[in-house]
Design goal:
single chain, six-stranded mixed sheet, 20 strands, eight-stranded mixed sheet, alpha+beta
């Protein structure tokens, strides 16, 4: 079936040309909203354009593209199925649609459900950013759903399975700049891993007074870089901090040696890297070998992460209770100010 691809969007993602043919206004507007920094820039010489196509779900068209010889791969999610045949992969997501990726040709296509079961931002990430990340990786650029911050030239990649909105506010108040608040582009630049700005806003967390922000009439997403005026376009990847699932009463951190760091990064890596040979993410191994790696257990106090990151920056492997005390006082004051502003 021929679709009317009214939107032919050309992007330059850190030197790599990308062309997305899109017949869905919702996806086109999301691209314009979330990827404004990729509308212009210089193209790296000799690099072919990555082609992506996004359209409505059409079962007849999809069945004609699927291969009966494709093998199902384990993904560990009951609502997602992944299939592979040689260099081609198909991801079936019952909440978003179907994505086909051809790593050899360097292009992808997404068919989006008429009524997705996910938030529009999640649909955009699943049907645009995820396949785009798989194709660009072969050109030396990795898109990772992780936060990146920098202070005094020291860049940190934050891998967490939950929102860090409150923590990012505390970090910004303490002088940290946000490189990317949801997805980060990572590039190997002459042996140095570099963190580059990418897309996305921050998903709001629970408010300090125990009510969801959506119940207060606020948007689910907030652009903290703009709101707090704390944006930086790039930084060296000096460290990566991996947050354990869930929060506890107290926060703690321990540094990982290279081998345990590689294992932890593979286990907690926030995106599945599609590879015909089935190997794990190579970027995780590079980070483990070149950057300082720490695993943290976060508490319900957002200021604790500030103390832990300062310990990472100053090469202290452990934050003491005495060091944590000023941060906790800061957090209490921060929570009170947030409560007053939200009540207003």
């Amino acid at each position: 079936m021929n679709h009317n691809y009214r939107n032919d969007i050309e992007l330059i993602v850190h030197g790599l040309p990308v062309r997305i043919r899109c017949s869905l206004e919702s996806i086109a507007s999301q691209i314009s909203h979330d990827l404004p920094s990729f509308k212009a820039g210089e193209v790296t010489d000799g690099v072919r354009a990555t082609i992506g196509i996004t359209g409505p779900y059409n079962e007849e068209e999809i069945l004609a593209r699927l291969s009966p010889a494709a093998l199902r791969l384990p993904v560990g999610h009951e609502l997602v199925e992944l299939y592979q045949q040689d260099e081609r992969f198909w991801l079936v997501d019952e909440r978003a649609g179907l994505i086909e990726i051809d790593l050899l040709k360097g292009h992808w296509q997404s068919w989006v459900l008429d009524r997705p079961g996910l938030d529009p931002t999640y649909v955009f990430e699943r049907c645009v950013l995820w396949p785009l990340s798989q194709v660009l990786r072969s050109q030396g650029l990795s898109l990772v759903p992780a936060i990146s911050v920098v202070r005094d030239g020291f860049g940190i990649l934050l891998v967490a399975p939950f929102s860090l909105e409150a923590e990012l506010r505390v970090l910004a108040n303490a002088g940290y700049q946000i490189v990317s608040q949801r997805w980060t582009a990572v590039r190997d630049q002459a042996g140095q891993l570099e963190l580059l700005e990418c897309s996305g806003a921050t998903e709001r967390a629970f408010s300090p007074i125990g009510r969801k922000t959506t119940a207060l009439g606020l948007s689910r997403w907030v652009n903290l870089s703009e709101e707090l005026n704390c944006h930086e376009s790039r930084a060296a990847c000096n460290a990566v901090v991996i947050a354990d699932p869930g929060r506890r009463g107290t926060a703690h951190m321990h540094q990982l040696a290279s081998l345990p760091a590689a294992d932890a990064l593979r286990a907690y890596w926030p995106i599945a890297d599609l590879r015909p040979n089935g190997r794990g993410p190579e970027l995780a191994l590079k980070i483990a070998n070149r950057s300082r790696c720490c695993q943290v257990q976060l508490s319900r106090n957002p200021a604790d992460l500030l103390v832990l990151l300062e310990a990472v920056r100053t090469s202290s492997a452990k934050a003491t209770p005495r060091q944590m005390a000023p941060a906790r006082r800061l957090a209490r004051g921060r929570a009170q100010s947030l409560e007053v502003s939200q009540a207003a």
